[in-house]
Structure formats: C-alpha cells, structure tokens
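Protein in question kept in full:
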Amino acid sequence: MNMKPIRLLLAQALACMLLWSPVSAQEEQSAEPAGGSGDQRLLDVREFEGLVRAARAADISPRFDGLIESINFTAGDLVRKGDLLVELLTLEQEYGLKLDKAAMAQAAAELELAEAELRRARELRDRDVNSPAALEVAVAQRDIAAARLDGARTKVEMTEIIISEFSLYAPFDGIISEPAVNVGAYITKDAREESRLATVTQLDPIHVVTEVHYDVFVSRMSQLGTEEEIAKRVVLTLILPDGTEYPHKGKLISGGFAFNQTTQEIASLGEFPNPDRLLRPGLRVRIRSGLTAEQR
C-alpha cells in the first residue's frame, strides 16, 4: 500500500491546526463578556427593565386673559427653541400702549418746560431779581416733571412686556402635543389654572428609569465606595423591544433618587442621546449596565 498520500494529508492537517489556533485564542481573549458588545470590556454586567421618559417637559400657557388669535403648530411638530407657537389678540393692549406713549410724550414736554423755567429762575436769581424760595420752587417743579417722565416711561415698558407675553414661544427644542384649544377661544384666569394650551417635550437627550434591587446597589457601593464613582464607571446599553441594541451608549445621572419599600428596589435614572428621536416617552426597554475596568 502506498503511504505517501496519507502522510501528505496528515501534514497538511497539522499545518492548518498550527496556523489557526493562535488566532482563535486571540479572538476568545478580546471577546466582550456575555450580554454586551462594544469597544471596551465591561465588568459586573447586569440587565434591568426600563421605561423611557422625557428629560423635561413644559406646559405652554398664557399669563393673562385673552383671545386666541393664531396657533402656529399641529400635534407632533418638532419645534425649535424660540419658535412662535401661539398668539393672543392684543388689540386692547396695543391701544393702551398708544395712550401710555402719549402720556410719556406729554411728560417729556412738561419736563422740558420745567427745565426752561428753572433756567429762567436761575438767571433772575443771579441778577437778584427773584428770591431764593422762587428758585427752590423751580427746582422742585423740574424734579417733579422728571419723576413723572420716569413713571410714564416705566408704564410704557410694562405695557410692552405685557404685550410680549401674549406671544408664546417654545422654551426648548422638542416635540409638541395637540393644541388643547382652538383659534377664537377666550382664555380666562380659571382656564389657565386648570389646563394648558399645549406641552413641549424634550426628546434629545432622553431619560430611562430603571429599578435596581437594593443588593445590586450595595454590591456596587462596596466595590466603588461612592455613588459619584459608580456614575463615572457605569456604561449603559439600551436594548430595544425587538431585541436589537440601541446605537448610542448612555450614562448614569442618578443612582438612587427613590426607594420602593414594597419591592426593595432603588430607582435609577440614565440619560441617552436621541438625535434621531427613535426613543419616545413610555417605551419599555431593557438596560444593560456594566462597569468599566478603570475610571473613564
């Protein structure tokens, strides 16, 4: 029997084993721990249920009674900080502003007249024609006129501020709710206290609330010493409802802001970038929490 072909096959198999075994060992060594993937190796990886919620929300509501003149958004619009959302009719206030400006102009004219009278009184006093008391009266009249002008000017500024409050703007970037009123509705004090015109909700960044069992909190406190150190070392990964991993990593911003005595769990708050607005308040997700080997 010819053994050369068999020896050749054995030699080739041995060469393949020697070639591939170091690569496999390297891949096994650099692999992430179970339950995570990424650029850094994480320790003490755990998973928790989470609920997405808005980082902040603001109710849009006027400070004064008024008639809704225009609504410049629809439900679900993405608004930018400073966008004009609602305008209330300001016809009455604008007429009031005209009267205030007229009063200010009259006060300015009265001050000019009082200053002229004061100059004349000083000239007469220099020639010893009038008495010191007459000069004092002229000074007082000038001061009174100046005070009236200041008051009139302040009233104009106050009216302008009030008129500006009849235009409602977005306080920050976000998504806006459906308007709670229609154009033409008259908003009274009672209505302002009971409801709002709309709500702007910030989506980027966005928060996720998780409940962590007290044993986990104690374990990490014993490892790292302080909640501040835990926040520095924790890396959060979000798992979407379909099981896929959210592309942006999160950070821990509050490690224990509430304690549930029934479940013996601590509420923790994580923050994630949400530039594509994929995450929405109310979405149920899973949070994978791990510790970096060293402080980031």
Remarks:
- Confidence is low (pLDDT under 50) at residues 1-6, 8-38.
- The two ends are 67 Å apart (CA to CA).
- The chain has three domains: 37-56+203-292, 57-85+169-201, 90-165.
- The first helix runs from residue 4 to 30.
